[in-house]
Write a structure and sequence with these properties.
Layout (H helix, E strand, L loop, with lengths): L8 H6 L23 H12 L3 H4 L1 H8 L5 E7 L7 E7 L4 E6 L12 E4 L12 E3 L5 E3 L1
Antiparallel strand pairs: 1-2, 1-5, 2-3, 3-4, 5-6
């Protein structure tokens, strides 16, 4: 599942133990209101702790310029690294997608963890649970 997180949220998600059904332990007060919803916590991290989100927004901007809806987004915890958020962004106009994995220490790399055709996206990163605005802000539905 794709994910995004805000400043200070990494410590909270790295302390999460167990499955995604029951997020058990959050070590940071930053996520006190979102501990039950990892997607929202990841979105906060992306929006507030990501200096590169404007660069990633080119996917959303391209989608909007063509008259298509905003870029589709899946935010959540990574299946491979369940203590890290992952964000999957797809452009409906170009059928191009990218995934960003939260770095240790709550950073967000400018380099995508994966990129390719939307047809190659793993079904675990669907359905889309958010959208991306032209400035790169992720909004969970």
């Amino acid at each position: 599942m794709g994910v995004v997180v805000a400043a200070g949220a990494y410590g909270a998600f790295s302390a999460v133990q167990g499955d995604r059904e029951g997020v058990q332990d959050v070590a940071s007060d930053d996520l006190a209101n979102t501990a039950e919803d990892p997607a929202q916590g990841c979105a906060v991290s992306w929006n507030e702790g990501n200096e590169n989100k404007g660069n990633v927004a080119s996917i959303a901007t391209a989608a909007q310029q063509s008259g298509s809806p905003t870029a589709y987004v899946n935010v959540g915890l990574s299946d491979l690294f369940p203590d890290r958020c992952m964000v999957t962004v797809a452009n409906p106009s170009t059928l191009y997608a990218q995934q960003y994995l939260q770095d240790p220490g709550n950073g967000w790399s400018m380099i995508p963890a994966w990129s390719g055709s939307v047809s190659q996206i793993d079904s675990s990163n669907l359905p889309w649970n958010g959208r991306m605005t032209q400035d790169g802000t992720v909004i969970i539905r």
